[in-house]
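During data preparation, a discrete fold description was generated, as reproduced here:
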Amino acid sequence: MSPFLKSFLSGRRVLGAYLRYHSSLTAELIENMDKKATWDRFYTETSSGKATFKNFEWFFGFDSVRDFIMPLLQTMSRPDAALHVVDMGCGTSALGPSIYRHSPVSVHVTCADISPIAVKLMQEHTQAKAIQPHSCSSQIEFVELDCTQLDKRFSPSTVDLIIDKGTTDALLRSREGKRNASLVLKQCLRVLRSSGSLLQFSDEDPDSRLIWLETAAQDPGVMTADVGVQEVGELRGIHYYCYQVTPHPAL
């Protein structure tokens, strides 16, 4: 079995466990993970009739990756300005709010998702919980945004850290996967500072993901990038990885 197929099937198991009461939705998700309408339906159906809000975490939650994110923010810290952090394809994950809540350095967290349903749910939940930041100058916002069009929201070289927890995996598993995923990667490199990084959390094996990242990140004459990987750990028999991509303007 190829690494990509293993990754695809593991993604199905994660979704299947969450969607055991929403089986009619599973097939649509597997086939159309890159479609706005699919995610609008997902967040509408999985939130309706619930007495209390519950975050949906693709793969795992903040505690599993905080040791990858927080030290990196510390090394990027600037005394004169907040670090701009983007949780790309945030859905209803608690990742962005957790960074806002726990980061000792000042951060401006933008939680971005293509689904306005997810954005509204997170806005309402965050306001209801009245989450307080560790740094009094930190800010958080939730915005509707297609991650293939990051440059419509962010100017070039203005973002310090982009976190991608499963978004690229969802795109790669869709029908036009590699084309859209490559576009998203180039958009990330365009809006990141030269001192910034993209962190991709994925269950795809490094033998496959590293080759794709190293190839897709190159833009001859414009941009190149360093790519590294660390193992996050094993959960429910599945191995997860953190891929770090750091842009460099081409000489």
Remarks:
- The chain has one domain: 9-249.
